[in-house]
Specification:
Helix 21 (369-386) runs antiparallel to helix 22. The chain is mainly α and 438 residues long. It has helices at 2-18, 23-27, 33-40, 48-58, 62-67, 71-86, 92-106, 112-128, 132-145, 151-167, 171-187, 193-209, 213-226, 232-248, 252-269, 272-288, 292-308, 312-328, 332-344, 350-365, 369-386, 389-405, 409-426. Residues 428-438 have low confidence and may be disordered.
């Protein structure tokens, strides 16, 4: 009897603390804080009426409270996890508190997948703030918990592992991890749509960073075909509301189904930056294939989504790609306004160099030879500093053509020689592994 009394008391204390209730708040109006303290300390065995009162206040069933076997509690924690997943980038503290609550309450309930997913959430928050050490620690613990899980569940950890590897600079290995997980799910009969969506979206991002545009476009097409919800965050919220109502009504099995639907929608909602990058990749592929309307639609979607997600660097890349398209379509004012946004932010790197190159070409189109030369030379220096061999070579050629057409063939030839030597010196230096915030 003493062991049962201690277990009930410990369970009561844990659930009360997880909900932020004081002993007085839990006890009133029928009991006292001293009575709750005695029960939690194992000094009193609560009556059936007291158990029913406490269970109602805690949002669990009396059986849950006395036995610790709590399907309703597992569903409630599932909902709490999804709420944390859906927290915006400005509410990292709230998301972290949610994940830690899930870990503390789910561990005694024998719910390793819930704990692992919460740890993956903490790893994502750590990556967002650049703490790769903390991200790795949380990911290691999540992978241990998922060792016996189904492949499509383990794939969630693989996606986070690939992001961490990419942050460390090894984009090719990150791509290998993602592709292997994707192929394994299909081969072994676990083609979970949410898992495949995540893997394809992350693959598209990696291929974009590796400048492998055909592979990026292929992965992007697959990801966008699986991203079927127009407003995933709103859909997730609706499913969460339904699940909460069902749970309050004691319909635990139906609530669990609604919670899983909410999780599927939330998975897409959390991939907003990656899916915007998928639109970039598909838009570039469509442009290369001559599908101008499709390319403009995708690039515009990417630009708008990345700005909304607070990703100025990636939004700048999309703006430059849109500007290139509008230049070709004969809309120089629109193109110049887009690159102007990027150049106005200042800074260095390949994004600024791309904007300078497009503005240089626009100036050349307008007959502004000094302006064209100034921006094209700035682009050459930017690509040289960033180690972008292909873009450096293309910009050197554009500047050489400009100088030759201006009657300066000797300068054009010298530029070509110098530019080729610069491209050779860059060798096969790998591209930088700058990840979007997750």
């Amino acid at each position: 009897m003493t062991q049962r009394r201690d277990q009930v008391g410990a369970r009561l204390q844990r659930l009360r603390a997880a909900r932020g209730l004081t002993q007085r708040a839990l006890a009133e109006p029928r009991y006292t804080a001293a009575y709750v303290s005695a029960v939690e300390g194992g000094r009193r065995t609560p009556s059936a009426d007291a158990v029913a009162h406490f269970a109602e206040r805690l949002g669990v069933t009396p059986v849950d409270l006395t036995t610790g076997r709590s399907p309703a509690e597992v569903v409630r924690l599932h909902l709490r996890l999804i709420e944390a997943d859906c927290a915006g980038p400005d509410d990292s503290a709230g998301a972290g508190a949610g994940y830690r609550e899930v870990i503390s309450v789910a561990a005694p309930l024998d719910a390793p997948i819930l704990v692992a997913r919460a740890r993956l959430g903490l790893a994502g928050l750590a990556l967002r703030r650049g703490d790769t050490g903390e991200a790795a620690a949380q990911l290691d613990r999540a992978e241990e918990l998922l060792a016996e899980a189904a492949p499509h569940v383990r794939a969630e950890a693989t996606a986070v592992r690939a992001v961490l590897v990419g942050c460390g600079g090894d984009l090719r290995y990150a791509t290998y991890l993602l592709a292997s997980a994707r192929d394994g799910l299909v081969r072994d009969g676990y083609p979970d749509p949410a898992a495949l969506l995540t893997l394809h979206a992350e693959l598209a991002v990696c291929h974009l960073q590796l400048d492998d545009e055909p592979a990026a476009a292929e992965a992007a097409v697959e990801a966008l075909a699986l991203a079927v919800l127009a407003e995933p965050a709103r859909v997730a919220g609706l499913h969460l509301a339904v699940a909460g109502s069902l749970l309050a009504g004691g319909r635990t099995a139906e609530a669990a189904t609604a919670a899983e639907q909410a999780r599927q929608a939330a998975r897409q909602a959390t991939l907003d930056v990656q899916l915007a990058s998928c639109h970039r990749a598909r838009g570039r592929g469509r442009w290369a294939a001559g599908d101008v309307p499709g390319a403009l639609a995708d690039l515009t979607t990417a630009y708008d989504a990345l700005r909304a997600a607070g990703q100025p660097g990636l939004a700048g890349d999309a703006a430059v790609e849109l500007a290139e398209a509008y230049r070709v379509l004969g809309r120089p004012a629109t193109a110049d306004a887009l690159v102007g946004e990027v150049l106005a932010r200042g800074g260095e790197g390949p994004g600024a160099a791309r904007a300078a190159r497009v503005r240089g070409l626009l100036r050349a189109d307008a007959g502004d030879r000094p302006g064209a030369e100034r921006y094209l030379r700035a682009a050459v220096e930017g690509f040289r500093a960033a180690g972008r061999r292909r873009e450096l070579a293309g910009t050197v050629l554009a500047l050489a053509d400009h100088l030759a057409s201006a009657g300066r063939p000797d300068e054009a030839l010298d530029l070509m020689r110098e530019g080729l030597r610069a491209v050779e010196r860059l060798g096969e230096r790998p591209p930088s592994a700058v990840r979007p915030a997750t």
